[in-house]
Amino acid sequence: MPRKRHPNGELEAVLRQAEVKDWTITGGGDKYFKMKCPCPKKCMKTVHLSPSGANYLRNLLGQLRRATCWED
Ligand SMILES: [Zn+2]
Question: What distance in angstroms lies between residue 44's CA and the mean position of ligand 1's atoms?
Fold first, then answer.
């Protein structure tokens, strides 16, 4: 089943970037998506469907860089 799209274009772009990195995207039906990293540490990050503010995208990317093996 194809995954649901994020209604926010910039956050949808992050999900697509994650998919390119072989992360698994689940959810999207209720309040948030879950992004799971393929590495042995199984890094995980949630992406809310309703971003809490203008800094949400920047904060999300910051957390990904700090707390997971995300690389740009
Ligand atoms: Zn990882």
Answer: 8
